[in-house]
Write a structure and sequence with these properties.
By secondary structure, this protein is mostly helical. The protein has twelve helices and two strands. The protein has a two-stranded antiparallel ribbon with strand order 1-2.
Length: 287
């Protein structure tokens, strides 16, 4: 292990900002960045050695590889974290456009929704099986569905998610509006009892690895698509018509009354998914 990778790992261990997922993504991304700097000819670097020329070399490579704006922005976010921790915030401008990175394209009007299908039957771990059903029924993120505690969450007509389960660390609620949601929640009670969907003998990371392995073996991928499916189903229930990404009419074709309903529905769905900005619903629903 070279000095840069070693000192970056030490930096991550001393600064555990964000959720477990965020921390894991950061370590992976910084490890990749360190390897790419070495391949670019930079030797004997440490975390404290970061300079503008290193940032430029990375950007040149990422642009040459035609990476998407979203991917580059994610890597830049990790670079900014690194720069901040070593007291070199000034080497990276706050505005990505100054680095030649285009705005991320969120809206495609192509549905990314998915359902569990026959793959669910191939999941042998009961807790993973239950987490996937919760993701589908309530639009939960992977971490939320793994850490889910039905006795705490079930509030009768809605579920309450702890901030320690959610991205951003904020509590949120999701309504129980269908009999299918209630059936899934009752099954979660029967399985977990007073605990969570992480078995008593496992840590969260161990159960997440089990989840990932089970999904891969069952041919299930892009499970974030379950959130897209939830959002689109909720949109249709709230408005009476399909979302643009699901084949419905576009926002430009809506009447004034429909446009008002569309706005309210997107606000509701944004809150249920745990997003602060209503605009992000375009990623799930289209525009």
């Amino acid at each position: 292990m070279d000095d840069l990778i070693y000192t970056l790992r030490q930096l991550c261990r001393r600064n555990r900002d964000g959720s477990h997922n965020t921390q894991a993504d950061r370590i992976r991304s910084l490890g990749l960045i360190a390897r790419q700097l070495r391949e670019a000819g930079f030797r004997q670097l440490k975390a404290s050695s970061l300079k503008g020329k290193h940032v430029q070399a990375l950007l040149d490579r990422w642009h040459a590889e035609s990476l998407s704006p979203g991917t580059i922005k994610n890597r830049l976010a990790h670079l900014r974290w690194w720069a901040e921790k070593v007291g070199k915030v000034g080497i990276l401008p706050a505005d990505n456009t100054q680095l030649g990175v285009a705005d991320r394209r969120f809206v495609t009007n192509v549905s990314k929704a998915t359902d569990l299908g026959i793959g669910l039957g191939k999941i042998s771990d009961a807790n993973v099986h239950m987490s996937l059903q919760l993701q589908s029924a309530f639009g939960l993120r992977r971490e939320e569905a793994i850490k889910f505690q039905p006795k705490y969450a079930d509030q009768g007509d809605h579920i309450l998610l702890k901030g320690s389960w959610t991205k951003g660390g904020r509590d949120r609620t999701v309504p129980i509006t269908t009999s299918q949601q209630r059936e899934v929640l009752n099954a979660a009670h029967n399985l977990a009892g007073v605990g969570s969907l992480i078995p008593a003998h496992k840590t969260y990371i161990q159960q997440r690895n089990t989840y990932d392995g089970q999904c891969k073996a069952a041919g299930l991928s892009h499970m974030h698509g379950l959130r897209h499916q939830y959002a689109q189903s909720r949109y249709e229930a709230l408005t009476g018509w399909k979302a643009p990404a699901a084949g419905g009419i576009s926002s430009k074709e809506l009447t004034p009354v429909q446009r008002s309903q569309d706005t309210v529905a997107r606000q509701i769905i944004s809150r249920e998914l745990g997003h602060e900005r209503t605009q992000i619903t375009a990623t799930y629903l289209g525009r």
